[in-house]
């Protein structure tokens, strides 16, 4: 096991460049990163405490209910949703899963487009239109995400963002059964998006899905499959509080841009 | 003779490698704070199989059947651990997570894939300071002491291994051990303890970015959260300031992807975070870990500092007020308010410096120096180390000190040269 340090030493001796970066005997010289910072030794600045307390102020009037739903979602994930998703991962080849994700993402482009246009984001709207066209004509029903391969990333715009764009406040924080963190505004937006998808009946998808109810099951599995979030992943007894803040901030970011 | 040839061969190989890539293959991030946050650029990382291809599962074992937890925290009653295994006989390596990290942390998942791919069974355990371990496996409920944490870990490891053997028919040829950060200090103490107990007889123990004097490292982490920032007035929120920078970056770049590669993009833009901001961000993450630790230790020992003693925490109970209080107590505050009083009672006439010494690598220096099967890997710019701590590592481990000039606190652990060094130590000929 002494081999490696020896080789490193040898390499260090031969290479002038590495000798320059290293101190005596090939040992890299200590550098104290804290030396370059200004540290408040008195601890009287309270920057961290003030900011963190501020972040905990989220309008959450039905917190008790939300926390129950949050726990339910976590357990549903553990016992039902994720085992199904894992089975889905095991039994279906990757290209099929990607195809399924792409089909549903393609359908979601309709509300994306509507919301881009409603917010006056014409350039973005233009890109979404192009995506829709490329994917629907070139890719068979969007089964292969041609647009992504062409460098047009999916522009996710939902009605919750549109409402936010026009200054509608978030309203109280909500944890939706199965769907997870949301706010009153975003939950309303979600309902509107689904009705846009419904009304547009793009490629007659609703008709098809109603005739084949398993498609809704696949929709639900895909919804979980493409969402990387796992309950418990923040690894803290205060996960609920942290997710609540992060959700609100990430939505703000999406709306601002 | 064979061995000598092997040396020569490896040396020449390494030499050829370093000559060929003298400039582009070494770890490129020279800022220790940035390195700690962004890790290794994907093109320089050692390739590992995707998670879905690893034969693995999460299991749970009851370590302390008598422990009672309120409904809000009942899911921490059993100790959860992650197991990746092979169907053939293989060495088993335990991985111990660092401060405030659990068995599912991404850093350890990467290391898991490295060692699994190299043919080892892997068991990942949460840090003894993590809330789940405190609840499920810490007998005292007060982690932060070298020996008592090692005893808790040793018990948890024995139970996990029996449990895993039972569930998955593991065939284990030998035991190895590795830990990251505080988990590395834990690993050193567990190896030391096992030398007396003779249960696992670890053939290799690898300390990745260990602290040397835990309490000195704790003070340095606490200091990070008190970094003075330019451009943030005393009334502003630090997080708002960071989010504004993100928003500005998104507005300018037109990007929408709030995930992979984000940080590299920002750091090369006008909205790049300053050193002070990155230090503060790292410090804040550790302060939240300290809040978890303070809250959970107090709850298990029924101290009543945060959640009132005797209060039944239901699933619907808001924990936010307790978090608000716990956020004021950093690691040093935990030592002073919770750990020291209890230790002092049991160790009459000793000082807090004695307590610090007992939980430092100094206290087991002889064991570390003379044991050819223990190595330490760290960086010259790891901010948890003082100059003295760093010198201790170089002097104590000698040739088994695997040192790199850059990488901050663990930022270079995915780099292919570093991974090769780790595996080389783990799989090298026994001494």
What does this structure look like?
The complex is a heterodimer of chains A (257) and B (431). With 257 residues, chain A is mainly alpha-helical. Chain A has one domain (61-256). Helices cover 64% and strands 3% of the residues of chain A. Chain A has a two-stranded antiparallel sheet with strand order 1-2. In chain A, helix 5 (94-118) crosses helix 11 and helix 8 (159-165) packs across helix 12 (239-256). In chain A, 30% of the residues are buried. Mean pLDDT of chain A is 68; it is low at 1-23 and 125-155. Chain B is of the alpha/beta class. Chain B folds into two domains: 26-214 and 352-427, Rossmann fold (3-Layer(aba) Sandwich), CATH 3.40.50.1820; 221-346, no CATH class. In chain B, helix 3 (106-117) links the parallel strand 3 and strand 4. The longest helix of chain B has 26 residues, at 275-300. Chain B starts with a helix and ends with a helix. Chains A and B meet through helix 1, helix 2, helix 3, helix 4 and helix 12 of A and helix 1, helix 7, helix 8, helix 10 and helix 11 of B.
Give the biggest beta sheet of chain A. 2 strands, antiparallel
Instruction: Please give the share of residues in helix of chain A.
Output: 55-70%
Alpha-carbon Rg of chain B, integer: 22 Å
Through-space gap between termini of chain A: 54 Å
Order of helices and strands of chain A: HHHHHHHHEEHHHH
**Class per helix and strand makeup of chain B:** alpha/beta
Shape of chain A: extended
> SSE order of chain B in H/E notation?
HHEEEHEHHEHEHHHHHHHHEHEH
Mean pLDDT score of chain A, rounded? Answer: 68
Report the major sheet of chain B. 8 strands, mixed
Strand neighbour order, sheet with most strands of chain B: 1-2-4-3-5-6-7-8
Q: Work out the count of structural domains of chain A.
A: 1
| Overall average residue pLDDT of chain B | 88
Strand content of chain A: under 5%
Of all chain pairs, the largest interface belongs to: A-B, 68 and 97 residues
Low-confidence sequence ranges of chain A: 1-23, 125-155
Alpha-carbon distance between the two ends of chain B: 16 Å
Total domains of chain B, how many? Answer: 2
């Amino acid at each position: 096991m002494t081999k490696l340090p020896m080789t490193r030493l040898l390499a260090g001796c031969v290479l002038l460049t590495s000798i320059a970066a290293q101190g005596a005997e090939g040992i890299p010289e200590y550098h104290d990163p804290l030396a370059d910072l200004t540290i408040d030794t008195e601890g009287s600045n309270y920057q961290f405490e003030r900011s963190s307390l501020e972040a905990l102020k989220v309008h959450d009037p039905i917190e008790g209910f939300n926390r129950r739903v949050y726990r339910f979602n976590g357990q549903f994930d553990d016992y039902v949703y994720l085992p199904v998703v894992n089975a889905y991962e095991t039994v279906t080849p990757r290209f099929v899963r990607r195809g399924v994700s792409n089909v549903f993402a393609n359908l979601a482009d309709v509300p994306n487009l509507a919301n881009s246009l409603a917010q006056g984001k014409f350039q973005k709207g233009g890109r979404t239109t192009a995506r829709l066209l490329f994917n629907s004509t070139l890719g068979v029903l969007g089964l292969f995400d041609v647009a992504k391969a062409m460098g047009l990333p999916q522009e996710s715009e939902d009605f919750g963002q549109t409402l936010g764009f026009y200054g509608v406040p978030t309203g109280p924080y909500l944890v939706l059964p199965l769907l997870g963190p949301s706010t009153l505004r975003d939950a309303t937006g979600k309902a509107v998006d689904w009705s846009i998808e419904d009304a547009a009946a793009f490629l007659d998808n609703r008709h098809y899905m109603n005739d084949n109810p398993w498609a809704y099951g696949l929709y639900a599995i895909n919804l979980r499959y493409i969402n990387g979030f796992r309950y418990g992943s923040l690894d803290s007894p205060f996960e609920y509080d942290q997710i609540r803040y992060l959700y609100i901030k990430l939505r703000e970011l999406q709306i601002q841009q | 003779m064979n061995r000598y040839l092997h040396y020569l061969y490896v040396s020449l190989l390494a030499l050829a490698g370093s000559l060929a890539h003298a400039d582009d293959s070494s770890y490129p991030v020279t800022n220790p704070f940035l390195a700690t946050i962004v890790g290794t650029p994907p093109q320089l990382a050692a390739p590992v199989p995707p998670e879905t291809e690893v034969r693995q599962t999460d299991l749970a074992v009851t370590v302390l059947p008598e422990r009672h937890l309120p409904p809000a925290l009942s899911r921490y009653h059993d100790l959860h651990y992650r197991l990746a295994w092979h169907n053939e006989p293989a060495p088993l390596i335990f991985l111990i997570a660092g401060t405030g990290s659990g068995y599912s942390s991404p850093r350890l998942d990467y290391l898991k894939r490295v060692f699994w791919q190299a043919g080892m069974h892997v068991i990942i355990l949460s840090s003894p300071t993590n809330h789940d371990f405190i609840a499920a496996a810490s007998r005292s409920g007060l982690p932060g002491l070298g020996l008592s944490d090692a005893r808790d870990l040793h018990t948890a490891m024995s139970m996990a291994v029996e449990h895993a053997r039972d569930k998955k028919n593991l065939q284990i040829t030998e035991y190895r051990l590795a830990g990251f950060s505080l988990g590395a200090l834990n690993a050193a103490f567990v190896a030391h303890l096992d030398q007396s107990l003779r249960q696992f007889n670890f053939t290799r123990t690898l300390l990745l970015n260990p602290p040397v004097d835990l309490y000195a490292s704790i003070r340095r982490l606490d200091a990070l959260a008190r970094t003075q920032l330019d451009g943030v007035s005393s009334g502003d929120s630090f997080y708002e300031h960071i989010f504004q920078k993100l928003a500005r970056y998104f507005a300018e770049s037109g990007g929408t992807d709030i995930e992979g590669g984000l940080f590299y993009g920002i750091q090369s833009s006008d909205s790049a975070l300053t050193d002070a901001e990155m230090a503060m961000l790292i410090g804040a993450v550790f302060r939240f870990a300290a809040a978890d630790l303070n809250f959970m230790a107090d709850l298990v020992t029924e101290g009543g500092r945060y959640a009132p003693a005797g209060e039944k925490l239901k699933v619907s109970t808001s924990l936010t007020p307790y978090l608000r209080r716990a956020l004021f107590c950093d690691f040093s505050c935990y030592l002073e308010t919770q750990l020291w009083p209890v230790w002092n009672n049991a160790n009459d006439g000793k000082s807090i410096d004695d307590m610090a010494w007992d939980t430092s690598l100094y206290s087991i220096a002889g064991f570390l120096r003379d044991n050819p099967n223990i190595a330490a890997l760290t960086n010259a710019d790891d901010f948890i180390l003082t100059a003295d701590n760093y010198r201790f590592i170089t002097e104590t481990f000698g040739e088994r000190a695997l040192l790199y000039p850059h990488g901050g606190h663990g930022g270079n652990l995915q780099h292919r040269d570093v991974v090769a060094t780790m595996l080389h130590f783990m799989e090298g000929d026994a001494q």
